[in-house]
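User: We ran a pulldown and think these components assemble together. Before we commit to crystallization trials, I'd like a predicted model of the whole complex to look at. Sequences follow.
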Amino acid sequence: MKHIQKFNSFINEDVYFNVNKQKQMSILASLGYNIIKAIGGGSYGNCFLEDNGNIVKITNDRSNAIASQSLIGKNLEYLSNVYRVIKVVDNNIALYVIEMESCDTKNLDKNKLKNIFNLFSYKKMNVIYKIYPNSYVRDFLKIQEEARENEIRLDLQNSGNFGLKNGHLCAFDLGINYLHSNKAKMIEQEIEVYIEKN
Ligand SMILES: Nc1ncnc2c1ncn2[C@@H]1O[C@H](COP(=O)(O)OP(=O)(O)O)[C@@H](O)[C@H]1O
Ligand SMILES: [Mg+2]
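Assistant: Here's a predicted model for the assembly, 198 residues in total across the polymer chains.
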C-alpha cells in the first residue's frame, strides 16, 4: 500500500493530459478493454467506445475519477451510470480509466440545448421553468436534483457534457466539490489500482 500512496504524489489535476494515443490504447488493451473507436476529448482526457457499447474514458482528472467511483453501483436516471474506475500507475504517471454508460449524443437537440444556455443562467432554472416549460429545462432541474443528492458537481454550461437517456437529458463529465477533503481521499482508496510493468 505504501508504494501506491507514493505514486499519488505524481497526480496533479492541473497538469495538461499529454499521453499519446498509442500509449492510451496500449493501457486500455492491457486492462482488457476492446476498443472500437476513439470518440475524442478535451484538456484532461479522452473517450473511447468499447465493443459492448460502453464509454471508456482515460483521464488525469482526479475530481472526475472520484465522482465516478462514488457513483459505482448506483442506478442513476439523469447522470450517466458508472461501472468501473481503475487507477493506472505507469512509471511516474498515474491515470484514471472510467468505464461508463453511453448516453445518446447523436439525437440530442444541440440547438435547443444551446438556446437554453444562451437564454438562461442555470441557477435560475426553477423560476424559468414556470414561465418557459421547455422539456430540456425540466430535465436540467432533474439533473441538478440527482447531482445534489449524490454530491456531484456538474458543468452545466457545456453542451458537450450532455446526451439523452430514456428520452430525456442526461449529464456526464462529472466532478466533486470536496476534492481536498478526507472524504475524497477515502473514496480514492476504493479505486482499483493497476501498476504497469515495463
Ligand atoms: N457517457 C457518455 N456518453 C456518450 N458520450 C460520451 C460520454 N462521455 C463522454 N462522451 C463523449 O466524449 C466527449 C469527451 O468526454 P468528456 O467526458 O466530456 O471529456 P472532457 O473531460 O475532455 O470534456 C464528450 O464530448 C462526448 O462526446
Ligand atoms: Mg466534457
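The chain has two domains: 2-102+179-195, 110-171. That may be worth checking against your pulldown data before setting up trials.

User: Thanks, that helps.
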